[in-house]
Design goal:
The complex is a heterodimer of chains A (267) and B (366). Chain A is an alpha/beta fold. Chain A is built from 7 helices and 15 strands. Chain A has 2 domains: 2-218, Rossmann fold (3-Layer(aba) Sandwich), CATH 3.40.50.620; 237-267, no CATH class. Chain A has helices at 36-52, 67-76, 94-108, 128-136, 192-201, 209-212, 248-262, and strands at 2-6, 9-11, 17-18, 25-26, 32-34, 55-61, 80-84, 113-117, 140-151, 156-163, 166-173, 176-180, 204-207, 227-233, 242-245. Chain B has helices at 6-10, 46-50, 52-62, 75-87, 106-120, 133-143, 253-266, 274-278, 309-312, 344-365, and strands at 33-36, 39-40, 43-44, 66-72, 92-97, 124-128, 147-149, 154-158, 163-168, 175-180, 187-191, 208-213, 222-229, 242-246, 269-272, 299-303, 320-325, 338-341. The chains are: A alpha/beta (267), B alpha/beta (366). The complex binds flavin-adenine dinucleotide and adenosine monophosphate.
Chain lengths: 267, 366
C-alpha cells in the first residue's frame, strides 16, 4: 500500500510561556517536537505497512528545521520524507497549508491512503485532513482508531472509530484520507539502526516552490482567506476566591458550611 | 455603532488577485446566516441547536436572517428537526433531501452542502464542532475555498465592514485571537458543544421550510457498516451536575481511589486534567479544558489540579468551583470560589466522611 503521512514539527507547548507584559509567546529555548498526535498517525501507518507491505512517505510543510521531525518518524520505520519548504509558503492558514500538502501528494502520485494526526498541539484546528481530502476530491474519515480489514484487490479498507457515544465501522474506497484519533495507538520508539540508515541514505527531499511551481496567489499569506485581526486577553471569570489554610478538619467544616450556604449540595 | 447594510452590497474583490483555483465570488452578493443542523438517531443534535445562540446575536448585528440547513434521506426526521430549529430561533429552514442520503457520509454530504451554498450564498456558515462536524465542516469550507475558524468561543461583527469576527483561543487559552475573512464569503466558524447554551424553545415560532429535492447525488465512498451505541453507564461530563476532577496531584492509585469515593458519595462524575489523561487515569472523553470538554456543573471540585489556563478554560460556565491543592500559590485558587490549601491525602478522607454524614442525615429526615 502506498501511504503518505502528514506530520508537523511543533514547539513543545508544554514548555512554552507567555510574556505577561506583551502577551506574546516566548519561543526562545523552547524545544520542538513532532506533534505528539502525529506519532499515533505514524504508528497507525506503520502497522498497515507491517501487515500489508508497501511504502510510507512522510510529508510536512514547514521551515527547514522540520527536517528533524521527518528524521524522527523515519527513525520509527517510515521509508522516506518530503519537506515542502519555501519562504513563499509562510503565513499560510489551513486552506493554504492544505493546498501545498495536496499538491505534494499529487506530485508523489498513485497514493492509496493519506494519514494525518487528529490535531496539532500548537493550533489544534483538526482541519488539515478534511481540507487536503477536499483539494484531492477524496473521501475522508476523521478519528479513526483501529484497522479492521483491508481488501487489496477491491481497494477497500475498513476502520473502526469511536464517536461521543458510539462505535462506528466504516468501509472506505481507496484512495482516501484519514485522521487517526489521539491516544489511540502506542507509538513505537525510534530505532538507532533506522536513524543511522536515514543519515547514510538521506531519504529526505526538500521541495521548494521552484520545484512545485505553485501560483503565488494560492500559497502563504496570499492564499489564506483568514487573517488574524487582533489578540486580546481571555477575560477572567469572576469567582469568590476564598481560601482556607490551616487544620484539615477545620478546613473541611468550613467548606461544607460554604457549600450549604450556596445550596449546591445534592442533599 | 450599528451596521449599515448597504456596506454589505458594496464589498468587492479584485478577481485578478485571487488564486485561480478559488472561483471568484463577490462578497456583496452573500447574505444570511446558515446553521447546519446535524441529525443523529433521527433527532437534531443539541450542539447544532446551541449554534443558534451565536447565530442570533450575529444575525441581529448584521440585520439579517438565520437559515437552518438540514440534509438527509428520512423525511419525517428532517421535518421534525426543521421544526426544532425554528422553535429554537431559526427564521427559516432549508431541507436537502434524497432517499440515498439516509446514512451520513462526510464527503458526500459536504459536496452537496457546498453546491447548495454556492447557489444560496449565505454570508456566514456555523457548524457545531462535534466529531462529525469536525469531519464535514472543514471539508465544506475547503470545497468553497472559504475561510474557516475552528473552536470559536465567541463571535462578533466588525460594524465598519460587516465582517464576522471569529474569536478563539490560539495556542493555550490565555490569549484570544480575533480572526476575520474580509475578502471571502461565506465565512465559516465552528464552536465545540456546550460553549453556547441552547436557545429557549418556543413552539409558537414559525418559519418557512423549503425542500430541496435532489435528482441525483454524488456517489458514496464511505459506507457505515456497523454502529454500536455504547451504553452510557454514567452521565457524560458535559451534562453532569456534579463533577469531581483530579489532576497530577492525585495521580496515584491510592489518592485516585479516594477521589472516586468522594465522587460516589456525592453522586458526581469523575473528570480530570490533561495530565490525568496522559497518566492513564481517565480517557480523553473525560478531560476538561481547551482541548477537552467544556463543562457546566452546579459544583466542580478540582483536586490536585494546578489550574493552567487551558484547564480552567473548560470550567468557565461551572457554578461553584472548589479547589483542593497543597500549593498555596497554585493558580487554581484564583479560578475557584472556595479553596482549601492542603494535601489531598488528608482532606479527601475527611471530606468523604462529612459528606457521608450529611447524606445520612438527609436520608433520616426524609
Ligand atoms: C495547547 C494546550 C492545550 C491544553 N489543553 C488542556 C486541557 O484541555 N485540559 C487540561 O487540563 N490541560 C490542558 N493543557 C495542559 C495544561 O497546560 C497543564 O499542563 C495541565 O492542565 C496540568 O495538569 P495538572 O494540573 O493535573 O498537573 P500539574 O500542573 O502538574 O499540577 C498538579 C497540582 O497538584 C498539586 N498537588 C500535588 N500533590 C498534591 C497533593 N497530594 N494534594 C493536593 N494537591 C497536590 C500541585 O501543587 C499542583 O498544583 C493544555 C496545554 C496546551 C499547551
Ligand atoms: N504543516 C503541516 N505539514 C504536514 N502535515 C500537517 C501540517 N499541519 C498539520 N498537519 C497534519 O494535519 C493534522 C491536523 O492539524 P491541525 O489542523 O493543524 O490541527 C496534524 O495532526 C498533522 O497530521
Amino acid at each position: 500500500m502506498r501511504i503518505v503521512l502528514g506530520i508537523k514539527w511543533v514547539p513543545n507547548t508544554q514548555a512554552v510561556r507567555f510574556d505577561p507584559k506583551t502577551g506574546t509567546l516566548i519561543r526562545e529555548g523552547v524545544p520542538s517536537i513532532v506533534n505528539p498526535h502525529d506519532l499515533d498517525a505514524t504508528e497507525f501507518a506503520l502497522k498497515l505497512k507491517d501487515k500489508f507491505g508497501g511504502r510510507i512517505t512522510a510529508i510536512t510543510m514547514a521551515p527547514p528545521a522540520a527536517i528533524m521531525g521527518l528524521q524522527h518518524v523515519i527513525g520509527m520505520g517510515v521509508d522516506d520524507g518530503i519537506l515542502a519548504s519555501d519562504r513563499a509558503f509562510a503565513g499560510a492558514d489551513t486552506l493554504a497549508t492544505s493546498y501545498v500538502l495536496a499538491k505534494v501528494i499529487e506530485r508523489i502520485g498513485d497514493v492509496d491512503l493519506v494519514v494525518f494526526g487528529q490535531e496539532t498541539i500548537d493550533s489544534s484546528t483538526a482541519h488539515i485532513g478534511a481540507q487536503v481530502a477536499s483539494w484531492l476530491k477524496l473521501p475522508y474519515v476523521y478519528y479513526v482508531e483501529e484497522l479492521v480489514d483491508y481488501d487489496e484487490s477491491k481497494k477497500e479498507i475498513v476502520f473502526r472509530r469511536k464517536l461521543e457515544d458510539r462505535e462506528e465501522v466504516y468501509k472506505v474506497k481507496l484512495p482516501a484520507v484519514i485522521s487517526v484519533a489521539m491516544h489511540s495507538q502506542k507509538p513505537r520508539p525510534v530505532r538507532m539502526s533506522y536513524k543511522i540508515r536515514a543519515k547514510l541514505e538521506n531519504p529526505i527531499q526538500v521541495w521548494t516552490n521552484k520545484d512545485m511551481g505553485l501560483d503565488p496567489r494560492c500559497i502563504g499569506l496570499k492564499g489564506s482567506p483568514t487573517i488574524v485581526a487582533g489578540i486580546t486577553w481571555t477575560p477572567e471569570v469572576p469567582r469568590k476566591k476564598q481560601v482556607f489554610k490551616g487544620d484539615p478538619k477545620e478546613a473541611v467544616k468550613w467548606l461544607i458550611e460554604k457549600l450549604k450556604e450556596e445550596g449546591v449540595l445534592p442533599f | 455603532m450599528s451596521f449599515d447594510p448597504s456596506v454589505r452590497k458594496k464589498k468587492k474583490v479584485d478577481c485578478e488577485k485571487l488564486c485561480p483555483e478559488w472561483e471568484c465570488r463577490q462578497p456583496g452578493e452573500f447574505e444570511g446566516i446558515w446553521v447546519i443542523g446535524e441529525i443523529e438517531d433521527g433527532k437534531i443534535h443539541e450542539a447544532s441547536l446551541q449554534m443558534l445562540t451565536p447565530a442570533r446575536d450575529i444575525a441581529n448585528k448584521l440585520q439579517t436572517w438565520i437559515e437552518g440547513v438540514l440534509i438527509g434521506g428520512d423525511k419525517e426526521a428532517l421535518e421534525e428537526a426543521a421544526k426544532e430549529m425554528i422553535y429554537h430561533g431559526a427564521d427559516k429552514v432549508r431541507i436537502i433531501y434524497h432517499p440515498d442520503l439516509k446514512v451520513y457520509s462526510a464527503d458526500q454530504y459536504a459536496l452537496i452542502l457546498s453546491e447548495v451554498a454556492k447557489q444560496v450564498k449565505p454570508e456566514v456558515i456555523f457548524v457545531a464542532a462535534t466529531l462529525r462536524g469536525r469531519e464535514f465542516g472543514p471539508y465544506i469550507a475547503n470545497t468553497l475555498r472559504a475561510g474557516i475558524t475552528a473552536d470559536c468561543t465567541n463571535f462578533d461583527v466588525d460594524m465598519k465592514t460587516g465582517d464576522v469576527v471569529m474569536i478563539r483561543p490560539p495556542f493555550g487559552a490565555i490569549m484570544l485571537a480575533h480572526i476575520k475573512t474580509p475578502t471571502r464569503r461565506p465565512q465559516m466558524g465552528t464552536a465545540r458543544p456546550n460553549v453556547f447554551p441552547v436557545p429557549e424553545r418556543d413552539e409558537s415560532r414559525e418559519g418557512e421550510i423549503t425542500w430541496v429535492e435532489l435528482d441525483n447525488v454524488p456517489p458514496k465512498r464511505t459506507f457505515l457498516e456497523e454502529v454500536k451505541i455504547i451504553p452510557q453507564t454514567e452521565v457524560p461530563i458535559e451534562k453532569a451536575d456534579y463533577i469531581v476532577s483530579g489532576g497530577r496531584g492525585v495521580a496515584t492509585k491510592e489518592l485516585w481511589s479516594l477521589l472516586e469515593e468522594l465522587a460516589k458519595e456525592l453522586g458526581a462524575v469523575v473528570a480530570g486534567s490533561r495530565k490525568a489523561v496522559d497518566m492513564g487515569f481517565i480517557p480523553h472523553e473525560k478531560q476538561v479544558g481547551q482541548t477537552g470538554k467544556t463543562v457546566k456543573p452546579k459544583l466542580y471540585i478540582a483536586v490536585g489540579i494546578s489550574g493552567a489556563a487551558q484547564h480552567t478554560f473548560g470550567i468557565r460556565e461551572a457554578g461553584i468551583v472548589v479547589a483542593i491543592n497543597k500549593d498555596p500559590d497554585a493558580p487554581i485558587f484564583k479560578a475557584a470560589d472556595y479553596g482549601i490549601v492542603g494535601d489531598a491525602k488528608d482532606i479527601l478522607p475527611l471530606l468523604i466522611e462529612e459528606i457521608r454524614k450529611l447524606k445520612q442525615q438527609s436520608q433520616k429526615s426524609n
